[in-house]
Design brief:
Blueprint: H1 6-20, H2 23-37, H3 43-56, H4 65-74, H5 85-96, H6 102-115, H7 118-127, H8 138-144, H9 150-157, H10 162-166, H11 169-181, H12 198-213, H13 234-243, H14 247-258, H15 263-270, H16 273-280, H17 286-295
Helix pairs in contact: 1-5, 2-3, 2-5, 3-5, 5-7, 7-9, 11-12, 13-14, 14-15, 14-17
Length: 296
Amino acid sequence: MYSNILPTTIAFLEQLFNRQATPEAAKWLKEKKDLVKSSETGKELYLPFSAAPRYVGKSTLSLTQKELEQANQLRKGFTPRHWTTDQLARTILLLSLPHENADNYSKTILKLFGTADMGELVALYAALPLLPHPEKFVAQATEGIRTNMGNVYEAIALNNPYPSENFTEAAWNQMVLKTIFTGKSLQKIYGLDERTNSDLARMLSDYAHERWAAGRTVTPELWRPVGPHINQTIIRDIKKLFASQNETEHEAAALACAQSGYPEAQALLNQHPLLKLKISEGQLNWSHISQKAITA
């Protein structure tokens, strides 16, 4: 799907890399990239992919707002905001591998997944939305969300458009639920609002009830994917939020109602005219809730 923008993508990544890397690191990467480009079996990729941190370091990239906008224009949802120099070098190498034969290309990449350490897995999963033949990596990415390594999980689930575009509904729902119970922000899941569904809303409501029964709190972000699917069962959860003493829960309940076409939800929202006004004027939104959840 993205093979037609590969040259532009590589050029953009090289521009970012060369701005931050030492001349020696840039020379090393160019030499290895040329070897990978001419590789007939893919084996020329393995050694430099593994050795990249030793030659290019692990510095976090410093990107301007313009560069972040360029990244998103190049590939919608692509956000290398927290990438490192070794991650960037590894991605350039992955994109330089001959890809005309989809089976050979995916076989080489999947072999890397099988032997990768944590840093290599982060680079591989974060690069998925840029790789040719993305359909070849769905099973690997779906399996990847089972990981217990926080950095690896974040590389798949957060700031990455690949799951939204490729995961089945079941895999997507599991990822959203895991993001919540591992304490990460839903705000960073790309495509969250577009892929909300009634099964996910039911699962999140069930999860909230489990937490409440154990005397524990529920992140107000949980209600974001629930709002469009409020029904005769979930409306009771929303009433509970409005009845609480927590202002952020009131706000989350109001936002969920504003997303819903369920008449009782709309009636509830009308009972809170100030919150309704803030939502209509853009003063209250899910980003606001996420920020409060992070700082709570």
